[in-house]
User: Fold these one by one.
Assistant:
Number 1:
Amino acid sequence: MNFADRVLEMQRKKDSIVILGVDPHLDGKEPGLPTGYTLERFCCEMVEACAASIIAIKPQLAFFEARGVEGMRAFAGILRLARKLELLTIADAKRGDIGPTSAAYATAFLGDGDFGCDAVTVNPYLGSDAIMPFVRLVPQGKGIFALVKTSNPSSGEFQDLATPQGPLWECVARRIHGIGSDFLGECGLSAIGAVIGATYPEHARRARELLPSNLILVPGYGAQGASAIDAVTAARGDGSGVIVNASRSILYAYRGKAGSNPPAAAAAAAEAMRIELNQVRAVS
Amino acid sequence: MNFADRVLEMQRKKDSIVILGVDPHLDGKEPGLPTGYTLERFCCEMVEACAASIIAIKPQLAFFEARGVEGMRAFAGILRLARKLELLTIADAKRGDIGPTSAAYATAFLGDGDFGCDAVTVNPYLGSDAIMPFVRLVPQGKGIFALVKTSNPSSGEFQDLATPQGPLWECVARRIHGIGSDFLGECGLSAIGAVIGATYPEHARRARELLPSNLILVPGYGAQGASAIDAVTAARGDGSGVIVNASRSILYAYRGKAGSNPPAAAAAAAEAMRIELNQVRAVS
């Protein structure tokens, strides 16, 4: 089954376009693990608590790699739980390398091993041959989200550079649309999607023009400052084609609320996000 | 001690600019592990066999991630061996993400944990704020190699796009040079380096103009088709500033040679590469 069809089916079943970003921060300036939690226990409790309101989890590899071998074991454990809960899994890995290396990354994140997910995020800087090894697994029901326009403050530094075909990110968008047009599901959307940061709504509108048949994964909702309306700006006329990620605003929803326990606070935040996004989707 | 000074010191001590790329392919079209070897044993024997001829190892994360938790444990084991052998370690991770996530990647690959190395490769597509969390660890003796111009067939697709400041990759090179100028070692080279593929010698010459004080890591020697002369094109007038990686041509040197055992064949290939690069460095 095409990955886009899998997403749409899940979306209908759960009446949700919410993805839980599993980005367990360590400490320092970012909120860290609550006292008494191991990395794996914290993430698993959060995933389980939010499962009814979300369609997918998007673990961010960095936070597991930062914990070494134990972190990677936790990552594998979280994926096992997500599969049991029938949630889609998106490895937020942002990988991309020369062909044989990208093929190994594709095996890692779209294969049957410990770290195998339903979809993976990829970085386009090396060009198509860094992406094609991932694309070769799409016929097995796998999905790809290529970074096109990111949500960070300096995303414009290179992505907005003017080229004869428009800003760099628009060139990337056109190429992703081209590759994706060979992998349309029955829903009319492609299994090759794009990451478009929600902090730039004008880019979201332009992205939809350039990517009319691509799933768009929108990060930046919540802690990164984008509103629900910003987040669904890239939706198609029928409200489809966009899935929205929140990480810190769900995982750390318990903070500052005396007496609230982390999983219950996360579940409430995920459900509130689901409802809010559905309201703005319906009227947009 | 500044990472560039560490590299130069090692280079003088060993009279070598060779890096061993530890890219243990799995199977399929690429050469895989020899019969009877585990991933960790194969890599460790190769590193130990080549240690006299090389200054650093550059493990490619993809090939370890593709093996799941056990692969990551092997990666950690190889790093421990390399440290014992007093080799520099460069995590070929090509990471890059929004700030807090890049900070976690920096902790993973430049920190004290299981996967901590001396340097890491980073991807510039997200702009400076994806690179700065890595840069913050440079004062601790750590190094960074940013992808600037890669060696794969479609590297030109985005990297060569024309902008008002020249091709995209030249804009990236200028930015990396700018960031790097704050981190010069006593040798006059910066701890912030660049990856410039050796399969495009004309780019190597231009890269040196744009990156006059940056270490350049050159992949593509050997199996990817670049000659020794191509590989040192980006060297400075005194022959410094370039370190050259080979992976498959060393790891799989035993192939097609009846009776040769893998570590001995690798040691011979690494030593031959060291001598060849020194010869062309001397005359270039």
Number 2:
Amino acid sequence: MMTKFETIQAISVPSYPEGSLFSAERPENRENREITIHGSVHKIRKMSGFSFLILRTPKRLVQCVLDSDKCQVEGFLKEEACIRANALVVEEPRSKTGWELHLKRITVLSEPAEEMPVVINGKGIDASLETLLDYRPLTLRNEKQRAVFKIQEGLCRGFRAFLEKEEFTEIRTPKIVYQGAEGGANIFRLDYFGKDAYLAQSPQFYKQMMVGVYERVFEIGPVFRAEKHDTARHLNEYTSVDFEMGYINGFQDICQMEAAMIKNSLDYLQVHYGAELSLLKVRLPEADSIPSIRFHEAKELVAGRYKRPLCEKNDFEPEEEKLLSEIVKKETGSDFVFVTHYPTAKRPFYAMEDTEHPEVTLSFDLLFRGLEVTTGGQRIHDYGMQLAKMERMGMDPSLFKSYLWIHKAGMPPHGGLGLGLERFTARLLEMDNVRQAAMFPRDIHRVMP
Amino acid sequence: MMTKFETIQAISVPSYPEGSLFSAERPENRENREITIHGSVHKIRKMSGFSFLILRTPKRLVQCVLDSDKCQVEGFLKEEACIRANALVVEEPRSKTGWELHLKRITVLSEPAEEMPVVINGKGIDASLETLLDYRPLTLRNEKQRAVFKIQEGLCRGFRAFLEKEEFTEIRTPKIVYQGAEGGANIFRLDYFGKDAYLAQSPQFYKQMMVGVYERVFEIGPVFRAEKHDTARHLNEYTSVDFEMGYINGFQDICQMEAAMIKNSLDYLQVHYGAELSLLKVRLPEADSIPSIRFHEAKELVAGRYKRPLCEKNDFEPEEEKLLSEIVKKETGSDFVFVTHYPTAKRPFYAMEDTEHPEVTLSFDLLFRGLEVTTGGQRIHDYGMQLAKMERMGMDPSLFKSYLWIHKAGMPPHGGLGLGLERFTARLLEMDNVRQAAMFPRDIHRVMP
């Protein structure tokens, strides 16, 4: 006997049913047509004789007119209720879009049980950063808040589109690891079935391994840093946009690739995320070409220009990064600057040194509007060179056995970078605090919500 | 005084230089043209009077002829050396591609320091799974091994392209969490600055929160399960393809969307990953329509057909999933089957129950060639209903405060699913063990490499 199976058809379910407002290419052409729509009741504004009901849909706020004599309402209508509705599209020059909806029939699908603990239906949200983050599942419903993460989505789409075009293979590397790539104390420890394991500080070792497989690879994924810094620039979990490429002629290839990736992504935003850019009044930077300066020259430049003492010789203070960006902006007009040739003392063991000046590495940071958003460079590919450097640094190579296999087995000259997605977003949107650019930020005080 | 900055142009660096073999649309048109190329020496096969040198490039193995009288070699040439070369494109009907390269000049960029501990330049790799995984950074260089993860990349590109077209917003949710979504003991604990935190078992709570923001959301990212099962189907870290959508008419909308997503992705593979599919002799399944059966009917069907006792009433045994898939394949020809209406007792607290039959949920699994690859369903959106269910289950709602805000504040009817990327890949490629479909698998015994 044959069994009776039901059948599910592989046909997508459109967000809005056929003939509805948003399935139309040009809603203005639907003048006086009845459409169906759904969304959250963002705001109800009582007028004399009728109300404005602002409906929140994924892409925009829609102005609706609710005249209780002309509209049948099923259920109890209030702010944040989820509704389905039938409505007429009516021309209305005073509406932002040039049209509004006249509601005919509303079905309330679900009602909120309580008032919102924070007002989300204003232009922005008038609350402290702490409140904004405490109530994140709700505050993200605010029009400006949600636009932030649409732009972040757009940045990633732009990066990804560029990297795919340039023949980078997308990889997925483990986040539970047996060892950190960056070393030091800023690593989260984990109980892994009674043994110690760690959370990946970066996909560094894995992306290098994969250069031996695919030549060019990228990953956009979470990384974890147990840093105790409680600053406006630090997150303990963030999204790293990593790429790594083989057969480079020098680390400048990586810089050039990054500039092209950024330019591509900013162009992508301009084409596809215009509404969000204009809502947040984003000043898109130019990235057609990016100035570059050596680390020690940059240190001297800032010290000289601002009459500051040269304290920490091997690293930037955050204030110096800001000042350098100011100088660059003033002299070249650029919001970006590459700082190259960082001191060997401050770079990890896999960083390639300058043959003629081994005290500096063939590496770089990218600063964007005063903040470091990328670290990158050429890596050591020769086994003998890597082994010698580890021994010079007092490291035990036997702890890096499977990583060193790739050097033993043969690797092309290669290098890459990691770009902090939240930092990049924060600088693009000129936010004071990187937490504002993380959906659910993690810092030393916060793992909730 | 103005500073002198160097300038990095935002122009991408092509993998192969202009005029090289792979920048040409049709390499066969380049007959007798000299080109430049780079890659790893995959194999050297000595013939009488000359050698075949098989060059491994990201996309294919290239047959080259090395005649030491006619080729100038700089450096010591051996297998796994990375080289740059100039060569002539020559027609050769006995080569798979119809052409081969006659090497003119070779520069060895880097040499391996040791012999490979495992032979990777055969068709496949003749080694145990343990060896294959122990030497993963090297074994992935094998042509068939690397094709696996190109196909996995293609699957993700296909999923992503579909979800973007269907107006899903890509989200990035935290992997360090204060609480698990699935409950139970299979959660990794973490020391988070002296407090307890956990690794996310799924983005469940967060994707539901984000339905309140964007209506349709997706995430492709790592999830972590501290399960002690040491089976061919379990990984302790895997990639979950999650989507969640609001304003559904029922859980069938989600099934339909998944079927469409899978069909779209398989079509995408066929168009863009033909070489890998044919190398691995992949039998692509049909997904135009997928049969569906209720859980308790499926249990009875398998028990009746195979004369098996009905033991565990509320869940499938792995063997039952295999047998059900066999029946479905025989009777409908489908490699997939949706099993719906799982018992309430075995689904999490947020699962929506069938109003008329509260002992079952409006949920489903998708089985693919005998293995569960997806779990999904409709979620509870009403605050009162969710609260009552948690209390009935003996849970403390105060522990889920920020999650329950979304129910309090108003949520549309919604649901979604999580698809295990490695499991899906493993079934697509008919692998015995899901570990073969993870680049660097993590299981109870393995966190290396």
